[in-house]
């Protein structure tokens, strides 16, 4: 087998505003896609999986390293690739067939040839009769079919899919995923290989021959898991379930070594523990009520649940679920080991106590384990008038995050601090003020 | 047997085809006839075409004026694409173009008429084309800034996924432009064009017959017809002119804007259909006609060839997107800009001081205070009178459906057509023009307050109104707690537009004439108008500069803050 597209030692970082350095998204990533295989990039948010996909598609340039496609270095939009987008990315003012023809038009094909090929692609995805409909007349599933047809019609070497099913409801996603898999298994797929970005573990195991697991902060390859199942991958087989559980364990344990059945060697990423500033440690963006909800559910189901089962029970996207779990672990309300969640005594009390008591418990945990909230509280307390412009803290966060993320970090810290009654926030004045709980103390 | 509606629609040459065919022929003939007049030569610039007050000539004059309006619109469109694109795509261009646009939007363009008229006449000696160009330029200045800004904003807010899709499928720059960038901006562009087209009539009426540098210039058109009627004190001619103007605005709305708005609805960025899409009988007619479809089919190969050619000329960029920013280059650029602005400011100030002196500057600043007061009084009165009415209309969906087009119609009716009637009344009842000019300025500006109050009231969610009724909020409390916060954002928008309109109107409403009697108010507008007709360059510069300063200051001090408050606190 020959490699079609490979990312070689790719790193990507974005400059922070006002020359405050750089924010690293990807760190020395190597990925290759061979002819005839389906590769999944699996990772949580912040693992840079979408960025990696876009770099390989030539939509954004890497900061260092290179991408090679069919033996040439990619420099600008990669002609070997067609892309299917999470949000469909259809032009609302073009009909179905005009949207499908878009890529052919760009290649300078004549009108008749264009129409012919577009009709064939529309037939492949089962949208006959909708050629002259506008996207707004279609359901989400049908829109994504148009997205697939638009990609198929240019007959790419590799089809890139960026979470193609995650904007659809569960049943529609299942249906479309199944159809694409059948098309692939039947050998009639209009591309030689597929690269799919996903945070859905089941989806990765179901579709892919190889799963590349990405780690976070900054994004790096933790390892590759080969899905050694005959196609189509049988969801009920013991091996399928074993692989799924294994990947869940991997995803909930950032320090775990990722090894395939063939024991693909993986680089061990040692997390550098030099982040001394309280503002450098990112908070998971979760509301307090949501954490409480998760803990209550665990109390109901009994402690020591498998992560995979909990996620299934909640019917939440895995990524969202893991973020909530992260928050619970950060606050020492829960612990995760070997893919199982146990609830701590404080967590149990927090989930079952009255609002006022919950707030006290939450305040203690936040002050102890969330340095950014503790620092903000201390800073406010040290001021004579006990208030502070929000900009002061935002500037500190700006040192470590891009502006949008800095703002979100700030909002999460505010939300937690407000709930704990540690401080108040006046959105009109953009000012923080020490709260009742600490002012009295 | 009678054919059903289906076969009828597919008849080889239906009624709609006949209508479309005749309409197209008629339009061509009309444009040819009106356009020919523009090339009439007039020997020395002193011999200008006379305006006949015979009402039978009005359709021709109105046609000439309308043609000017559409040429102005076309020019604005071309400008919009070039300016908006440059500002959105080049970081360096953006830093000059956007502040410049901000200033151009707030500067009273009527004050520049004198400069442009002399310039254009010098450009086309011995022909009416110079005057035509000056008038068209005045219309252009009423439309272009809004449209360019709207296009720039839509380019800056293009959905990322659509941009990525066009890049991933390797569309050329030209294809991106016609497939993504123009369609995404279309709705904003059509709305802004429609609104500023309405404002354009005002400038048209003011620019067709003006005296600049001690000479009067007249173009055949409905604006100069009104001017001639005022000089001749001809009431019935004025009445006919107002009627014709109303007819023209109505016709342009029905035959041009409505079909355009109905068509542009498909460029909505939302991925779901809108509940009540705008309707137009003409658009339906065109869509139902096979002839239009046939013409479209004939056009396809031509447009394919043209866009193929343009695509091959603008291939996708190979190579890396914007490299790392050079901090030194940025600093140098900023420095160059600062130096440029400083030099311009020094030259301007020196010019004014060396020719008119400090005392004159102080006098003009004082006049500016008077005009500012007029604008503020106008806003206060218009708000007190029209907001309750607007809210009442907005709360009743039935009333709003009927009233909204009517208010829009009034807003685009050029208020300077009504000025002569008001002037006559002022003379008759001895109303001092210092007060009367407020009324004149309000004639055009008030509608923006009304229109936006209606829109604001409509934007208050029904459940909030039900809640207010339910807990028994009444009278003042209801206004304080529900209505004023609810319509605040819209009111600010209306206020900004109204005050902009009032500043411009001050130039033509602080000096009004009827026959040989002239009423002059003390104000900056009158000062500019007088300096313009005398051709006193230093005073024109001083007046326009002072007015721009006032407008920009009021925008910064008042409107910016109100706008920020509306965004932060009263956003529904």
Give a written overview of the molecule.
The complex is a heterodimer of chains A (about 450) and B (about 575). Chain A is of the alpha/beta class and about 450 residues long. Chain A has two domains: about 5-250, Rossmann fold; about 290-440, Arc Repressor Mutant, subunit A (Orthogonal Bundle). Chain A is built from 16 helices and 16 strands. Chain A has helices at about 50-55, 95-105, 110-125, 140-150, 170-185, 200-205, 240-250, 290-300, 305-315, 320-330, 345-350, 355-370, 370-380, 390-400, 405-420, 435-440; strands at about 5-15, 20-35, 40, 65-70, 70-75, 80-85, 160, 195-200, 210-215, 220-225, 305, 335, 340-345, 385-390, 425, 430-435. In chain A, strands 6-7-8-3-9-10 form a six-stranded mixed β-sheet, with helices on both faces. A four-stranded antiparallel β-sheet of chain A has the order 2-1-4-5, covered by helices on one side. A three-stranded antiparallel β-sheet of chain A has the order 11-13-12. Chain A starts with a strand and ends with a helix. Chain B is mainly α and about 575 residues long. Chain B is globular. In chain B, strands 1-2 form a two-stranded antiparallel sheet. Chain B is about 75% helix and about 5% strand. Chain B has two domains: about 55-270, MetI-like fold (Orthogonal Bundle), CATH 1.10.3720.10; about 355-570, MetI-like (MetI-like fold, Orthogonal Bundle), CATH 1.10.3720. In chain B, strand 1 (about 210) and strand 2 form a beta hairpin. The interface of A and B includes residues 57, 89, 94, 134 and 136 of A.
